Structures are given as C-alpha cells and as structure tokens.
Amino acid sequence: DAETGNLIWKVNGGPERRWILGNQRMISMWPSRGGPVLHEGKLYFAASIWPFMGIFIHAVEPESGEVIWTNSGDGTNYTIQPHNAPAFASVVPQGHLAAQGDNLVVPGGRSTPAVYSTKTGEQRHFKFDKRNGGHNVGAATGLIFVAGRAYKMADGTPIGGGAPAVFNSEMQIASDPSAILARRLKPNLKTRESTDRRGNKVIETIPEFETIFRTQLSERMPGTVVIAAGERLFSGGPGKIASWKFREPDPDWEIDIAGEVYTMLAGDDRLFAVTREGKLYCFGEKGTGQPSTGRAESNPQPASDSDTNWAKRAADVLSAPGASEGYGLVIGIGSGRLIDELLKQSDLHLIAIDPEPEKVRAIRERMADAGLYGSRFSAFVGDPKAEKLPPYFCNVITSEEPFQVGAYYKLLRPYGGVEVSLDENGTSFTTSTRSGPIPNTDDWTHQYANAAQTIVSRDKLVKAPFGVLWFGGPSHEGILPRHGHGPSPQVAGGRLFIEGPDILRAVDVYTGRKLWERELPGLGTYYNTTAHFAGAGEIGSNYVSLPDQVYAVLGEKILALDPETGDTTREFKAESFFGHIAVEGDFLVATSAPVAAGEAKKDKTNPTVDLKDAKPVIPPNSEWHYFAGELPGKNWEDRDFKPGEGWKKGQAGFGYGDGDDKTTIDMRGKFSTVFIRRDFDSKDAGGGDLILSVMFDDAFVAYLNGTEVVREGVDKKSGQVKSHEADRGFEQFKIDSKHLRDGRNVIAIEGHNVGVTSSDFTLHPVLLAKGSKDVKKPKSDKPVLEIPTTRYSAGSRRLVVYNRHTGEQLWDREAVFNFRHNNIAVAGDRIFCIDKLTDDRANALARRGIELEGKRALYALDLKTGEVIWEHDEHVFGTFLNYSAEHDIVLQAGSKFRDRASDDIGRGMMALRGKTGDVIWHDPDVDYAGPCLLWHDKILTNGNGGFALNLLTGKPTGWKYNREYGCNTAIGSEHLLTFRSGAAGFFDLTTDSGTGNLGGFRSSCTNNLIAANGVLNAPDYTRTCSCSYQNQTSLALIHMPEAEFWTFGGNANPDRVGVNFGAPGDRRSEDGTLFCEFPNTGSRSDEAEVKIDGKIQIHRAHSSMMEGGPDPWLTASSVEGAEKIEIELPDSAKGKTATVRLWFAEPDRSAEPGDRVFEITIAGTSVAEKMDVAAEAGGSGIGIVKDFSGIEIEDEKVRIEFDPSAKNPPIVSAVEIDFSR
After folding, report:
1. Which of 119, 798, 818, 920 has the most C-beta neighbours closer than 10 Å?
2. How does pLDDT run across 537-551, given as a tens digit for each residue?
3. What is the pLDDT of residues 824-881, one digit of tens each?
4. pTM
5. What is the pLDDT of residues 109-122, one digit of tens each?
6. In this structure, are strands 396-399 and 417-422 parallel, antiparallel, or unpaired?
7. Burial bucket for residue 854 (CB in 10 Å: 0-12, 13-18, 19+)
8. Please, are residues 55 and 126 in contact by the beta-carbon 8 Å criterion?
9. 118's torsion region: left (phi>0), alpha (psi -120 to 50) or beta?
10. Do the Cβ atoms of 958 and 936 come closer than 8 Å?
11. Which CATH number fits domain 1052-1218: 2.102.10.10, 3.40.50.300, 2.60.120.430, 2.60.40.1120?
C-alpha cells in the first residue's frame, strides 16, 4: 500500500525460495532485476540473471498479484552470441522493462533487449549487438532505444541513431557535450551502400531525426542527466541541477548541490535527484526553511548498550581460528546482544535467520540506523533448518541459544569453518570445525593443473548440472587483459589466485571475498597487452599456488608468499632471470637464463647492424619512398610501379612511439600498415646472396622485384599479425640471389603493426651483400652459450632445483640448446624434460649466424640429484610434455592452436614409459591441436573440438567432442572439459551428453573455468573486453542435480533413440539414452529423423516450474496437436522388438481432467484407448511416463498415432525407443 507501506501481495520471481551470495549480500537465486512496468492494466516484471538457472518473465494482475502468464522457457534458447557463435543463452533481464502496444521490451543488462508479446508472453525476438547494449531502454513509435542506438521493434534490426534521454509521443530529448536538443521521434529512414572488411557490398539503414529545437549548454545548464515533466525540462550534472521550459534558451532556476547527479525523477510536484556519491535530494515548489537531512554520519557500531557478558561470549566465539572475518550465520536473533558484539569485535558479515517477523523488522531498523544493514548485516524471516542456504559460505555459525553442533555442517566453509554453540549461561561452549578440503576434491596449482602438466583436475565433485554458488566478488580492475593470455587462475586450499600487471590477488573460493592483494610491480608485464598474444601459452606461468605457499617469479627472484596474507616468507635468487617454475613435494623446480631464440620480449638495448663480412647495399638510415595507410595501389611492390600521389620520401627507420625514429608517422588510432620501397643496382650486390637486416615492430613482408622473399609475423592465410618487439635489434634474413636482375632492382617492404591502438611501431631495413654464397657461420659444442639471454622466453639455459622449505639450491643443469618450459613435467621423483630448439627457432638463430650442433634429447632426471635416469635421443620433436602417473607414461607431443607459440607443432605423438624411457608407441603422422589432456587412459586433443586416442596404444577410440568458437583451449577434470563455446562452455564427460553452456557470461581467452576445491571457479578474466555479453563478473558454480542443462554433439546410442519435443537442446538420461531435441534449434546435433503430421504447437517451460513427476527436464516441454509421429531408426533396429516409452505432462495449468483425452496407437496397435494426462498424473504440470513393450520394428521406423476424443488436442513430451534387447 503506497500510503501505509503495508504488504498487499508478493510474487516470487523465481520457482522457489533459495539463497546465494550475490555481490557480497545474501539474495535470491533468481534476483528480480527486470524492473516492473505497468501497461494497459497489467504489471510486468522479470527475474534471474543466469540463463542456465532459468529466466522468468511475468505478467501479473496489479490488484491481486495473480500471475496471468509466465515465460520461463526461453532462457536457454540456442542464440548467436556477440562473437557470432551460438550458445544456450538468451536475454538476461536487467533494467526497467518497457512496453509499447502489445510489445514488452525486456532490457538485457550489458546486451540488447528482447521483445515479448504482452498478451501471451511469447518471445518475438532477441538479437545480440556485438558491442552495444545496456540496462536503460526506451520504446516508442516502433523503435527501441538503448545505449546510443535505435533498433526496430518488429525484428531488432539496428538502424543507428542516438538514444534519447527522454521522449513523449512526438519528440525525443537528448543531450550531447555541448547542447540539449529535441528531435522528432519518428525518423526518416535512408539507405546507403558500403563495403565491409571482406569487400562485400552491404546496405546500411540510416535514420535521420528532424531537430525541433537545440539549447546550447553553459555552466548554468548541466547536461549529464536530462528528464522531462509536463512542459518543463530538468538537467543535472556535476554539482548542479537546473530547470527550464521547453524551447527556452535559459533556465528558470538552478541550484548547486554536493556531488554529481546520477539520476532524477519528477512526481507529486517534487523533483528527486540521486548523486553518484549516494545522496538523495528532494526539491519542491516552496522551500521548507532549513532542509531536513537523514543520517549525516553512519554510526559504525550497533546502537545497543555494551554488556560484559555478551562481550565475553562474542570473544569466545571469535577465538576460533578464522572466525573473525568472512561470513557468519546467527541462528535466531534472541536479544540481539550477541550480534551486536560480534559486529563490534570482528569484520564479519552476519546473516541472521529468525522465525519471528517482528524481531527481524526491529533489528533491520536498528542496523539500518547504525549504517550496517546490507554492508555488514542482514536478517530474514524463516526457519534456519528449512531455508535453502548456499553450502560452504560460513566462517562461523553461532546462536544465543544452545544448538546441536553438526546440524549446519554443510554450510561451513571448508578449511576451517566452525560452529560454536554456547551453553545457556554462556560459561562454556562446544565447537565443531570443518577442517581441510572437501573429500574427493583437488587443487589446480599450476598453469596446466599440476607439475606433471596433465591439464586435468582430479576433482570428482564438479559435474553437471550446475547451479550458482555465488557471484560478484572483486572486479577485474587490476587484472591482466584477456588477449594477453596471462597465466591460468590457480586454486589451492580454498583460495583462488589471479594475476594482474602489478599484483597478485587471493579470493575465497566459496564466497568470492577478496582475501588479500599483494603489490608486485612488474609481475605481469609480459602478459599485459591487448593484442592477440601467446603469453603464458608460450613461456608458461610465472607463479605456482599451493595450500601452504605461493611462489611467484619476479625477475631475478622467486618470492615465497604466505597464502593467508600474501606476505613474503622467503626469497630464491639466481644470477639471471628466472623462467619456468613448478613444485613437486619438497622441491621447487625452476629454470633460469631464458634464451632469446624466438618471439619472446626482452629489455631494450641499443641496436646495431652487424656489418662484418658484409657490404652495405642500402645502409642504415637511408632514404626510401614510403606510403602510410591502406594499400597504396595494385602491384605497388613490382619493379615497374611508379610511386605517385600519397607517396613521400623519408629516412629509415619509420615509426612512432619509441622516440628513435628518423621518420615519425602519425598512424596510431588511424591505420596499422606502412609501405616502403627503394631502388638499388645489381652491381652493388656483388655475386653473393643478399642479407636483409631489419629492426621491426611488429611484422613485415619483403619483396624483391615483386616476388615475396621474406615474411615475418604475418600469417599468409588470415593476415593475422603477431606481436614482436624491436628491442631485439636488427635481425637478419637471407635473400637468394636468384631473384636479382641485372641493373635496376627494387626492394619493397610492407610493415605491419599488431593493431591501430598499439603503443609503438618500427620499420628500419638495411640491405647487405655477402661476398660469397658460402658464408661460414660460427659453430659451438655448447650452442646455448652462443644464444643471448633475455627476461622472457619460451625456453631457458639452465634447470635448477631448490629445497622449497629451506631455500637451499640442490643442483642445476645447463642445456645444450635450451629447456623449453612447456617441455618440463615433474612427478614423483623425476623431472621429464627436452633439451632442444624447434626447427623454427633454430632457423631464426641460423639467420643470425649461429649454427647449432649437439645432441637433442628427452631426459628423465632424478628430482633430488639431477642425475640422468634415462635419455631418449631419437625422434625428439615435442613442444609439450606431460606425464600420467596413473599409467607411468610420458607423452611427447605439441600444443599448436590459435594464439599459441608460432613454432608449436601439431603433428606427431610419442608415448614413453616413465620408469625406463622405453617407447610404447610413436605416431609421427597424427594431426591435432593442443595441448593434449591426459584423462585416465585417454589422450584428449584440443582445438575447435577434438578427439580421443588411447594413451596405452595411440589408437583412435572413436570418441569426439565439438565446440563453437572460443579463443581459449580446453582444460579438464574428472567429469568435465571446460572451454568457451560461444559463451562459457563445457563437455559433459560423465554422461557423454555433449557440449553445453553456462550462459550469461563469456569465459576468458585464458581458460578461467577451473574445476577445483569442489567448485567450478569462474573468476572474471575479461578486462578490456567490450563484447556485450549479458554479465561481466566473477562467479562460482556447484553441482546441482535439479538444475537444467542442454547440450549438442553427444555421441548417439547404437540401440536406443530418444526424442525430447520442444527442448532447447539435447541431454543424456541417467540410464544412457541421448534425447535429441525436436525440432532442431540450430545446434550441431545429430538431428533425430522425425516426421510429424498435424497442426502442432510447441510448449516449453523451465523444468523448475513442474509440480512433480519423473524427469522434469523431459516433461517441461511438449508438442501439442500431433496426429502421427514417425521416427526413423538405425538399420540395426529392423526386425527387433522394442520398448517404447512416452512422457506426458499437461502444460495448461487451468486444464481439468477430461479436457484432454486421446487414444495412442503404436505400430498399428492401440496401446491406450483413453489417455487423460491430467487425470493420470494427478493434475497439470505433473509428469508421467508410460511404457509399451513388445513393439515389433518392421521397416526401421516406429509410427505413433494420436486420436483425440476431447476438446483439447493430444500432447506428448518425449519418446524413447529401446531396441537393445
């Protein structure tokens, strides 16, 4: 009631009362962020922000609260996501709903809105706009306005334009930095033809809005926030609010305020304004003298008096280790004194649950007055034992009254959560501590899960289906950007660790609470780039996390950090920079002296050109013709091309951003290519080959007389440019003399920057001529000594092992070539490693004059002593080693895939016995993407989907998985593969159901879906991502059997066929039948061969809306009106006898028994004469299943016919045909 505040009615937006931690507060699993709109006598609102938990759109009768309709079935529609790849995720309602005519506009948070029918709730359309969206939407005259763009109401097509601040039926009012303007609401639509980046012609629709008036802004007229009320406009901004009449140039009044206006609302002859700083202002026609104010300063403590007895009791509770911070649950409010003292003496966030509404109301008001409600305290009416609270969240559970210790054990945080029950007198207490990890869980301590690099967690609790445990936590500010492929988040001892450019952060796995953040300047510098970059996929992670220590590489030091505080406990030092790091048992395994043999960065030096034994043909800093911008013309690189308009002359080097370029080019933010060319005479080249010596950042392609002779860092097919630093100095590239012509020659070079926003660019070429074609290069029996060291690289010169507890160095070993970091796997008492350079890196060194000789080998070294246990020096080719302790097998393979190292391999595998080094099998021809996962007795390959090989034999198993687009690589656990597939994705290994999604957010370019500590951890690792996925936050998920999940691409059964009518995707049942969706929603599923006769209608609700019965995920959807269903079976079914199971549920909640009755005939035989679904199930919304055995299959088809005998047509949810016996 608006006058009294008394509750008239309440509608739960979700299917039940269930709690999670959301943004550090205890909230509903299905928060109502879809704000209400009243339209034509109906009230509309929406709940839930996670599609896999169900999305619920409601129409409600505003007088009674009666639900008119609910759309719960479209949350997991298979929808194209912002990167143009589909996933099981639709709109996430966040923002106030809008309505126009019979269209209900549901804002999508960070994404574009969806449109529903106000009459039926049917979703009319939902389309992502890759980089646009927002919670603030408006609707008028067939248009939707959101985040600066207009879209067609009819189909969601973007038509450009700007979103207004406010509008009425005729005009829209918007602001820009200099003015407030009013325009006609309905635009004139014009079209223009343009060309997309692939050269295809496209037609664009351009709206033109006629301007009615424009008011120039001044200091007196702030324009950040604009609203209209009647014939007046109100504007607000930093420190000021103003008001004026339409079309008037100057405001009638303005007033100074403290803070910046965030939003305003006009009503009841008053103007209300809210500032970003959290203040609420109210203005009226007449002043009231001195304005009244609310609480000026928050009292940091509760208002009740201190009590020595309660202070002691609270101190006793807090004396348990770890009980003074985090989250606490208080069972019953009692006097409230214990709550007061706990808040005074600790940093706890307390949640109190009490069955008495008046007690809850009173303590809420008292804590609000103290400034603690919401931030430190919250209270709910309920039965503490009956409430569905999230598991694992409590650091402490206590009460003023004695309670049975152990009763709330499932709510305690692992690794130390404690229940404290005080006796009636408060003189003693009983405690129960939840110590150590959850049974059958695992840590994720290294870049690839563990020191053995299996890329598989042994956690047995993390499995589909999933529900949310918490979301929110610290933001991604300060964390590494996504394209830099920084180290994987790591999980150990209930803590998640994640890296930033200058920090390492620890977060509580079970609540998302930030535990600590340690400043470590320069820690993540190497990975701190927004360009596509191999990052940790090439050089490895620079930290390792264990329950008892965290080890972080910081230049020439390794810091041991206390995992509870982030404080340094020990330092390990080396004479050179550290590279790789791993821990096994008591041993810290590291590499030092990274070698500059490839694409890694190093600190800047003063570059020079090596002119020894060479004659300059085009010396340093020579003058060249150059063209800055897009392609300068056809055949620009040819010998006969004549530079014309747009071409200039300048000295090499060319570039910007470093301060050392002779010719500075203003290209940042505009273009990323520069073209240069210069003539030279063949007489100057002599008779030998040419050497092109180039200092470059980031890539280039060189041509001699129109023929490509060098390509460095530019992919020939995709044109993708790799990041490369000019600080390596001049690098040499051989050009065969066969491309020379007598007399005039032309060398032409196109320089590429990694992106238009890159901080610098360099292109400085020098052309040299050798006197002889046979140029002798230095040789060494220790080639690694010839290779310069750097700070970051894929491999290192030296392997070194320490006692991690004492800091003592136990041994070191110097490489012949280098120890590639991804080729170091540690397990038990052994280190497996490869000493070699890839052919690509060896060739790069050869171009610099270093010829490599020496033995390339795969070694097993004793972890304690460094002694060689065995070595293998035949067919040493790998770029990624991992080890299966379960089967004592070392796998030598590669990890070639998108955004991995340029010299990674993707062909050939070899399995060796870990104990002896014997080759078990070798397949030099197998092609795959990596890195490969070792999952029990299988090798699971990576890429855009993958396949399995038998680890023991190397033979294909026939198993495969698919995924949609995603820029990360798959990682594994006992029950899952996780990756990005349109949105956050996974493959269900337990039931082999297929590829599913955790819709509503995207996982990162570094895989951040980590199964560890009993939780699927998903820390936000998407900083700098502008794609408009629905949510951008951290979250954690746990196994929730009753939750929905849908898949595609599961491996079908040979002797069973399942069809789920109206479902959004596939899913395998507990007894192994893969139920395929019908009709197909667009996924890559093996479509069920189904033909339906009749005028059909599809129904779909979320499975949580079912009132009962078996398999709600099957009965929540159905097909209505089918007269005959014909299902094609495999050839192997012919002549067999089958059991046919049919699932039913009445979708019409108003239907009565007798309203829907029909006969069922299978294969020509009547099996049910009077099937009354509502009567047999006991009501609507309740599922039932019917078995019909002995069905003869004559022609590889089963025909099911339905003959109605009541007013409503037949209905069926699912069918299973089992011909296994």
Report:
1. 818
2. 999 999 999 999 999
3. 999 999 999 999 999 888 877 776 666 777 889 999 999 999 999 999 999 999 999 9
4. 0.85
5. 999 999 999 999 99
6. parallel
7. middle
8. no
9. alpha
10. no
11. 2.60.120.430
